[in-house]
């Protein structure tokens, strides 16, 4: 067995009949965004995809993979690496380059936490069966434009915590998940993601990206469900992001307001992250379009009141509003006036660290909350 590197919400509400309560919305199928990847977890994902028939249709054998060249009794494994069941683990070895003798049947190649500075043209030659490539936590600043051409079936590319200044070119059309978190990327040009119709997840936070750095058409053709551009330099919600998004994370930017048209095209959102920004104003009606929202993060901003429109969101379960400037909560801020309209009760409403006199809040304000422990007040620092 390979040794794996593993990193990897008080106020009484009025008494209500016990509803059928759904759990808070949770993202499933994506790994943590830390500085190292849990290879064991990635292997489980790979095996699940294979069982569902989505990983690789059939193994491809290159020309040199003929009997006269291939000797199964003498399997190859790069020096210092550990190879088992089509997994090649070469992490934490101080490598300066991708090893040249990775077996052609490899499905998962782990090269995280090394000293690799560039990806050369032939580094992945012959690895047409590769499902996942982990290059996290290296020093890569240069990627040859043809380097990924052999990886015709690769689905997951983890390129976070490097020194990239641009999105790598000619990414495989089979790619489903891309992580380029914590690099030096300032611009996403039109065409950077062209041909990636299978992509559903892009994680590109902690890059110095401004709104002007997202060119018109940068995300054209993508059918993303998950996009994260947190810890960047955005001053407003970007325009022209993929319309089918289920999750949009823009936390820890410099966004100052939510305008009426900012969220119009994202009607399918389930989770929206706008915490730790500079938001002072949310234009009335701007949240009206998010009728499928389950979870809303607006914590650590400068918002003066509970945003309008929350009571009309039938499926909203979790709202983070702590650490703002909210001084008053009205009885219909969260719940609809009529009964039987809201489909899902709240599981969490955080209002702590706001200048609210909680004893002045009517208990009926939280009549559509699952239980009395689901609302948090207190701890305001003047």
From TrEMBL:
Disulfide bonds: 77-83, 81-90, 335-368
Keyword set, alphabetical order: Disulfide bond, Extracellular matrix, Glycoprotein, Leucine-rich repeat, Proteoglycan, Repeat, Secreted, Signal
Iron as UniProt keyword: no
All copies of domain LRRNT, residue ranges: 76-108
Matching Pfam families: LRR_8 (PF13855), LRRNT (PF01462)
InterPro entries: Leu-rich_rpt, Leu-rich_rpt_typical-subtyp, LRR_dom_sf, LRRNT, SLRP, SLRP_I_decor/aspor/byglycan
Signal peptide: 1-22
GO-annotated cellular components: extracellular space
Primary localization class, coarse: secreted
Subcellular location, record wording: Secreted, Extracellular space, Extracellular matrix
PANTHER family xref list: AGAP008170-PA, BIGLYCAN
Family: Belongs to the small leucine-rich proteoglycan (SLRP) family. SLRP class I subfamily.
Role: May be involved in collagen fiber assembly.
Entry protein name: Biglycan
Organism in which the protein naturally occurs: Salmo trutta
Taxon lineage: Eukaryota, Metazoa, Chordata, Craniata, Vertebrata
